[in-house]
Amino acid sequence: MPTHGRRPRRSSRRQWPGAVFVAPHMLMLALFMLVPTVYAVYTSLFTSRLIGGNRFSGLANYVTVMHSTVFWSGVGRVLLFAVIQVPVTIALAFAFAAIFDAGIVPFSRFFRTIFFMPFAVPGVVASVMWSFLLLPGFGPYAEFAKALGLGNVNFFSSGLILPTIILIVIWEWTGYNMTILFTSLKSIPREVTEAAIMEGASLWTIIVRIKLPMVIPSIVTLVFLNAVGALQLFTEPSILAAFQPQAISFGFTPSLFVYNTAVGSGQYNLGAAAAIVLAVIIGLVSVGAFALTRRRGEAK
Amino acid sequence: MTRQKVAPEQVPLRLYGVTPVTRIALTIATCLFGVFILAPLLWLLINATKNQANVYGSFGFWFSGPFTLFSNIRALGQDISGAGIFVVWLKNTMLYAVVGAVGATLLSALAGYGFSRYRFRGSNALFFLVMATLLVPITSIALPLFLVYAKVGLVNSIWGMILPSMVSIVGIVLMRTFMDASVPNDLIEAARLDGASELGIFIRIALPLSVPGLMTVLLLTVVAVWNNYFLPLVIFSKNSLYPLTVGLSSLSQAAETGSKADLVPILITGGLVTVLPLIALFLILERYFRGGMLQGSTTG
């Protein structure tokens, strides 16, 4: 009886502290994410002129971005990059996670630690290291390629620059993805695997037909995170540009386009418009990928 | 969380019926990938001991010439030919990482607790909003932030770097999951009956019970701020405010444009000094990284 009578009072008492606990973070989120976003949309609608200062120009900046072949070739490049880098990274990550999970390879703890290490390396340092390693003519990897009879490989040539960046990003992120997939695989109950073994399933069947489907939710999350990261590609090409300026153009990736337009050339309004177009593209890709995984999930 | 505890032991390898040939082949593949991951780090370590001529002139994976590690390190304390002072960048990075990460952890703990233990009007919608911001590209936030900073005078202010670093979406999600799992409601109710205040319950019960979660968020945010490149690149134009990432990239630009090629050993040694603290942190506190990412991935 007493509890019954207290219930509405308690729930009203329990409303406001929750909001108070959440408020500081929400305030920061509003100040440092929402306000800038709204301001960027506002700014993108203006054009600064030498005479007359900022003038409202409607969607003119967006029209410029939409017609910019440089911007769209950058978008095409990061899409191509994502289409290759994300599956390769996650496939490698899953393969090693599954190998370690099954206990096939000795010293798996040691290997897991090694593979995860690049997580502690900033993209700037990773790019600097790889720039030296891949240096045409001097770098050890170029010498290695020569020893293999591949001739003088220039990893920074226009044909190889994208694969080179893919290589660097795979180096940086495979271990991180592997760690998450490894912990997901570890959470599969032992009985599931044992039952499959009793029915005569091979290791390959167990990994591909039983374990892989069970970690699909983790894989979907990782595909999202990797893809959003890939579409924003900035650090690696911008550092490589210092070493090989001819390899990385002004709009090599959309993020570089945004940075070079706004900070490099001082065209903030145009840069803001490009940043918003990029955000919309990433949003669309995410929603599309989400719908796709949803539909495939339902079809099963 | 609960699923993690189900499989404490591994299924014995012999049950899979893996042939020795498969086992050896997979071990070799793992070793090769391990070499791929370790090689750049080894290169960094070795080449931090060389002078400029030997970085280019000698085999990358072995020591050569005079051992100049200590003079390279000493050079980090001097103004590097106009590029700035490495030691100042290190100090800045530590300041940004520590203050930013402690702030992010506290705010995430408050918000995570609020979302985990209270239902208030709009709490679900608010949490959905938080999750949605996970997909917002950093690129499209950094530039708008810069535009807002230019208006309110936060350009070239350390707060312009620290305050946005306190917003950690992953932190909230992790803390909510962690509090859901490890703070029993009975304990909270009992404390309420004893007359404890809501804030008192949070500080004396929820926080101590979620120390492993707090550690994870702290470490993940330290790494995130330490390795952040785009935001400080956009908002700082004074090299005395640079963190290591931006400092190193300006150093690499100076070193690679030819005129200051003698900076190359300093660049490499600086890279090593940037990476070492995080690798040490990661090796010492490895279990928190692993545990935290598990929770992050299973929520997603």
How would you characterize this protein structure?
The complex is a heterodimer of chains A (300) and B (300). With 300 residues, chain A is an all-alpha fold. Chain A folds into 2 domains: 17-56, no CATH class; 69-299, MetI-like fold. Helix content of chain A is 76%, strand content 3%. Chain A has helices at residues 2-13, 15-44, 60-67, 69-102, 108-116, 123-133, 140-147, 161-186, 190-198, 203-214, 216-231, 235-243, 254-264, 268-299, and strands at 46-49, 53-56. Chain A has a two-stranded antiparallel sheet. In chain A, helix 5 (108-116) crosses helix 8 (161-186) and helix 9 runs antiparallel to helix 10 (203-214). Mean pLDDT of chain A is 88; it is low at 1-12. Chain B is built from 15 helices and no strands. In chain B, helix 3 crosses helix 14 and helix 11 crosses helix 15. The model of chain B is unreliable at 1-7 and 296-300 (pLDDT under 50). At the A-B interface, helix 2, helix 4, helix 5, helix 6 and helix 8 of A face helix 1, helix 4, helix 5, helix 6 and helix 10 of B.
